[in-house]
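Recap quiz, item 2
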Amino acid sequence: MATKVAAHYISEKVSNVRWLPEQLQQTERFVTGSWDMDNNYVRLWRLHANPYAQEVQHTPRCNDKVAMDGDVTGLEFVNEDTLAVSCADGHLSLLKVHRAVEEDQLERMERSERLHEFKCSQKSAPCTAIDIYGNDIATVGEDGCVNVLSAHNLKQVKRTIDADSISLLSVCFVNQHQLVTGNRMGVIRMLDVRVDSTGQQDISFAAASQDPKNSNFVSAMATHPMQQHILICGSEEGSITVWDLRNFEYPASYLSAHNSPITDIGYHRQDPSKLFSAAEAGEVWMWSEKKQLIDMSKNDGNSAWLSGNRVRSLVNVDGVLTDIRNPVNSFDVHGSRLICGSDKEVIYIADDIF
Amino acid sequence: MSEEAVPIFEISDSLATRCGNTLTATFVPGSTKIALSVYRPIKWSSRDTPSDTAGEDPVVISIAQESTLYKEPLLRSLLSETNGTFVTLQTLVQEAKGTKKSAEYLQISRAYRSIIRFCLEKLDHGKKTPEVQEDEWRLEHCTKATKTFYAIECMWHLFEILYLQQQQTSQVIVHHLLEWVRFHYPNTEDQATDLLLMAEEASECDSYWLTLRRLIMLGQLEVPRAILLQNRKFNQAAFQAAEQVLKTMPVYQDGYALHKFNSQWEYWHVDLDRKLAAQTFAAEPQLELIMQLVAGSNKHWDAELVNSQDWYEFLPGYLLYTKPTCKPFELRIATTHWLNRWSVLRPEWQMKQLSRMVLQLMQHDIKLFIYDAQKLNDSHWFSTHLIDLIYHTGQFKSYFDQQNVDLAALRHSMVFEYGSFLMASRNHWQLAIDYLDFCSHEGAAAIELLLPRIPLRSERQAFKVLELAKQRGLVTVEQDICKVLSKRAHSDQRYGSALEWAIRSKDVLLVTSLADFILKNYSHTGVIFSPDVLRSIGPRMFISPRLVFLCKYFEFYELYRQRDFVSAAEPLINLLASKITPAYFWPSLLIDAMPLLNSEEPKLFINETLAILQHLEMELVPLIERNKLNTAKFDNQTSKTIFKDYRVENVEEFVELMRLSCARNMVRATIIENRGPPT
């Protein structure tokens, strides 16, 4: 089926967008977070069938919004109706979604203490990314700290690790106890949430780069939903580095992809053979493994992503959105529907992407 | 939009009354703004001295917030959406160099209009929400915006019909004009719908005939016919005849031969005149009046016109009944006649801005129209986009040449001003860039000036600005931003971050000064800042020799700290021989050699010991000597302040100790090395 893309202007620069989790059906609701506005909001939207135009099937309508005290920098669902939101003022909030027949509601449940601050000036440091594992929420900030909190109690921080002396831009849980962080120099560190800053083993590796004399920050990371030892990193120069976390010596694969910094990267939640990447220049690409080429009988847990130079021949690249000329900050896929938000105050909804 | 209301400004301030209570105003250069000040204007160039009344009264400082229409969230989307269309137009022009693509231009024009219409719809919808209803400021703003953009849409539509569309289809414009009027005067149609729904009872309604007349004058035939069909007396002869006339009226369609149509229409018109003369409709005076209107009888039209809302409301309708094949160039004459008639009928009527601009369009007075368009309260949104479109279509080239208007320059300055305006209003900077991109050198220069001035509140935003600079190859902008961030991090004692930003800025001096800072701090305190950053700098260190030294020293330091002295010896000797050691670091470096020389197990060979001794005598001792000379000249300096290390009190003493250690180690090493089998 041909992909249909509809653009909706919502008068807010979108920093994050997420579909509401829905078990058995195509979800009709999503949340967006804004940044660089006079007042920033997390908004809850719902798709309504569009009775007028033939080409555009749905139009989104804002059902509820919650004001935030700074740019929204991370948006992640803890469970079906609890949403964790990180902000540039260094705080983490939990929002609750009340689904209803007519108007859904969004409500702030809890707000953490200030998690990130610059030690000298005592000013708040922007929280830059969050990730969720079960009920644990990990936040990283420009102060180089990692905080792990439980979604049941935001008032108490379970663990604070002084991971880095420069700002961290991305975080990703590898398993229940370990997480990886990416910093502005392109160094990825593996941290154990069970031990404090002083007891951390120093496991670090640098993202590959075309020109090692230039800095190449790691802006987005994701692990394979089934094989969690596969770590995918998107970087400033637009390349994708794949690591096999069982072997830190060298990257498993290195792919030069976009021509601009990668802003978001992630696997399809239900179908891990598909990976999506979004870039600053306004591109969203879909990477799908070619099933027929991978011999399942000989395949002992090795993924196409770990096959070094051969990745290009085992994986197909399709542009879902290309040439939209404005930075795509975040995307999310549910079923065959992709949504992404950009700086020109547009959200794009692409139907039937595969 | 009336020009007669003179705005009144007032600043009430008790302090100002002491100074004669004067209000001064100056025009802000390069814009349409006025700066008001109580007493006298203070600018960046004014001298900062206490005034006569200093300290007597409390000073009230009020900061004026600049308000634009686009503060309203509903209008923000208009800006970003039109930005998309603007860019599409620019790329379209670039792709199709030389070839004329009037169909595409028409598409673009329609896209702009649909954006305005959608926005009007949103505003209308938004005004009804409780959020806006409770906020007086927003409500007022929405109402203002609706008025402005309604007018803009009206004019843009007319412009499209008269100057863009006619290229596409035939020259006959009456039916397009009818459509235009119909959209902008929807009231009559609403009433007609009511009448249709009332069916037979409609004729008892007070406004029945009035509405019918209005419909006819708006040039609509189908709806009046449908309403008349429902009339109880429809079976009567007069009604039947009227129906016959309305049904048979020839309507021009594209591709029809013009002379054939004209003869048909003439025949129909003569037939109608004859029927009127024969008193066919006399039984129904109201119906007869309608038929007189259809026949274009001036007397009857004049009677109706007295009640119309604006001069152009019924002009297209009148043209339909009197000159159905009117062409754009004939419209000018028709308009002039019509307006003369109108001003006789309504002498007291004042021409508003919208009406005047419509007139300018119909009279082909584009120059004045553009002049007036710039006076609209929309921050030049309309004039910029329209002029840009006009420029690209290339249709008015000869006209503007005649008028002595340099269209390219005009378009250039409009786009430039609009882009600068967007840049100045917080958080529109990403849109502004697109406009400035398309006005040649000045735009590029403006981008270069304005990009580093965007207030950065987070690194995320900084990276976005850096990316924009990178795409345009603005290296200095990139460097400036990185330098600012480096300074910011440094003053916040985040030295690792400062160093990383400095490396990104590629400014050798800045990197060197930061490396110096870290080295000096180490020799004073023994603490190395942000070891994790130093560990992962890698090939990036080659930007500055000082940074190379720092990183290499750090390598040694780590081995040294792990008590791996044998491996540590090599980097130390390399550092000593490297010739990039900064003068102030010599003591620290040689002090580091001391434990290696004095260790129980000898760690250094003869040659290496010799090298150390050589550096001690050739580098450190002359330094101390030179410093002594300086100290003699300026007695506020002592050797301590220059050569400071946390491990050594007095440098002279240390030099002596060092010489002894070298001698001792040399003796040990000579014995050990000479003990081996002779080679």
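Helices of chain A lie at 311-314.
The CA atoms of residues 290 and 313 of chain A lie 8 Å apart.
End of item.
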